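Forwarding these from the shared drive since the link keeps breaking.
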Amino acid sequence: MKIKQIITASAIGVFACNLAFASPTSSSNPLYVQAGGHIGVHSSADQELAKAVISKLQADSKLAGVLEVDSRDGNISISGRVDEVSMIYRVVEIIKDNNAVKSVDVRQLDT
């Protein structure tokens, strides 16, 4: 009987820890966005564009997931994972709202 209680308590503890770390941000939407870590020199314009895109994505309360943003000559590549397919469309909509964006590649974005 004691072993069963210990195993049950351990399972609950592990589950609770996973819930605590599941959301990397403390905001109401569990969205984590970071700049891409691709090798090579990015122009300052690309760095600023990536920062602007990241800021806009983080400000959207409808998005949830983990994203990586990369900018090269005004072309944005997004990789990572979102909670729903509709969020992929929302990501593209938000990014295309920026006039400096030439194209958006979401082929590496999964649900």
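-- next protein --
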Amino acid sequence: MNRSIERVSAPVQPGHTAGVSREAATRVLIGNAFAFNLGFYMVLPYLFSYMQADLAMQAASIGLVLGIRVLSQQGLFLMGGWLGDLWGYRPTIIWGCALRAAGFLMLGHSLNLYGLLLGAAFTGLAGALFTPSSQAYLSLLHPDETRRRQVFVWHHWMSQAGMLLGPLVGLWAGTHGFRTTALVAGGLFGIFMLVQWRLLPVETTLSGSAKQADVPPDPQAGAWRGLLRHRTFWLFSLWSGGYSILFQQLYLAVPAHLQAQQTGTAPVTHIFTLTAVFSIALQWPASRYLAPLLGTARAMGMGLMLMGSAYGSLLVLEPGRLAMVSMVFALLFSAGSVLVYPLINSEVARYAPSVSRARYYGLLAGVGGLISLIGNMLVGAVLDRSPHGPEAGLWWVLCACGVGSGVLLWRHVHRQSVGLLATKAV
């Protein structure tokens, strides 16, 4: 019998123990969201300057290393999800921690391009392993839709906190050199690996939620055929890709706009910090009050529209008033992000059979990565032709991307919800 089917079909152990184990697994997985981002953002923001200043590498080589890191993660999410379904979520997460520890150590202590490329590949592959399995594990633990949304809200909140604190810890560790930062981050992921091994329960005893009412059965005999032919989920992933495009421009188009004002890198750091702070502050009010008021479909659509309007604000705000520009942009962008992102992750469970759920999360992330790669290439080409900073047309396009993808995602989720209610009524 297929190992993944054996794993999800095992009955829940009755009594108090199963409930305690389920809550223990939830706490570990939510804690991972903070810990993994803390370690990741300790290193990545400073990798470019390390390779440029300390190793005197050319821009093409630096771009290759950074590109391999992105490609090995975004391009392998589907494979990572498949391995999670095959091996089990717990061992896949543990292997991901081990690979990221090794990758960071190699990045910090390799003096040649080949060692850096291998370290970048390990670092990216690690994310491709533990991200889909962590998300699938969380969704499997909580079949109740309301509880599942709350859990993913916590997950997103903790990841934002890690994203905020990671660069600060990396800056502190970096006073002793980048190698020290990489060593500390690698050591942290080694500790995270031991924490998973010691505290994260095996999902075999927690899988009673596998046969849930809101998850449709696999439409095909094979899990792969079911995934590849699942047209509604492909459309959901495609429309959700608007989030990936808009999020990635926080690291490409926005820095180009701010640096065109010839004010150094301080405004870039400022807007990143503001975005993280607003996300942390707004997550709970948005998820507890606004999202239930709007409903799932409308909240997801409005979230993308708000993110698009953040780029639209750059059309009307005076460029010289950087403090005001940063504040308005960060507020709109964060408000949209905290609305849509946890709901996207929670909604996957509506489409994904339990035996192949990690693959669905992997496909969602992979489609988002491909869309963001295409978007970055197009935006990069536009920026290359605009030596004095992004033209207004770019902000119009990004604003339209947010509004358009928001409308399409709202219509798609709304139709699926109406169809599901009709099916249950019958």
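The mean pLDDT is 83. The chain has 16 helices and no strands.

- D.
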